[in-house]
Amino acid sequence: MKTLNLITISLLTAGLTAPVFAQQTEVEQNDFYLGARLGAFSADDDRVAVKNGQVFSVDDGFKTITSGVEAGMMFTEAWEARIYYDYMEADLVGAGDAYGDSYGVDALYHFNNNFYAGLGVNNTEIGDVTDVAARVTLGHRSFITDNLAWRVEGGAQRGWEEDYTEMFANVGLQWFFGGRDTSPEPRTRPEPRPEPQQAAPEPESKPVDSDGDGVVDSKDKCANTPKNYSVDETGCILYENETITEELLVEFDLNSSNIRSGERSDIKDMAEFMKEHPQLDITIHGHTDSTGEAKYNQWLSERRAEAVANALVKQHGIEKSRVDFKGHGESQPKVRENSAADRQENRRIEATLKVVNRVPKTR
Q1: Which CATH class name applies to 2-177?
Q2: What kind and span of H or E run contains 13?
């Protein structure tokens, strides 16, 4: 991505110096143009995107590629109004790519025939997360012919709803209609048409696989699939199940149901996992060692399980209806007791949660 940043800087530098192939052509009032654009976008380091129902951070730096179209009109020789649309492909931290789009309107003021600046309103959406922003633009435009111009731009935008500050840079080609070169071309005597000759048969075209997924375009129902994903016979991504397990183990002192201070971080981790997966409920299983009477140990195991259940509900905000607890006394030892250390391992609570996610299958 360092190479992309160098390319962006080079394009901006080229635009701010008069190119040798540019010609002096003045824009005129009511000139209208259509254009194509290609660029890079630097996302804010706090921007996030949603993919497969999960939230991921968008890579910052000029790592988001944009391509699109634009249209504009010169209302005076100095003021221009423009609308545009860009398709966006962004890198996510640890989750591949996310897609989105960006569109908006700009008011541009031309200081002379080449340099201009502007203000605008922009809507940027990446991975189903949308932000409206105010945008400032600096640019340079040069004409290649009377009707064809190229331009390079850079600038920044500031979000209104989210505290995002983001940068962009792009280049574009613009074709102007009307008012460019109205002088009539001299007519020449038409040359006699040659006798038509039988055209040679065109060679058979080979099937095209634009996204390189092994399925030709004529059969590909899912275009632009990432090359590292496995696909089916129609070119669509294959998915597989991924199981994520979260375990909780808390030990207690002899004859105690008080939670040790060193064990509280593990309970917090389990609470965070439950908040990330609100469809899951939990059952806390309490245990004791074999010291003491069985009836007392049953009561103590229930108190230990209840203490951890209360910590999840009262200290970490988990709904009470999602938390259950049971005591098993000394009936389910973790290890056979031959020492004080063995008895300590049996004085515990245990809980396990599992969730299955659907993830793309890689090649």
Answers
A1: mainly beta
A2: helix 2-15
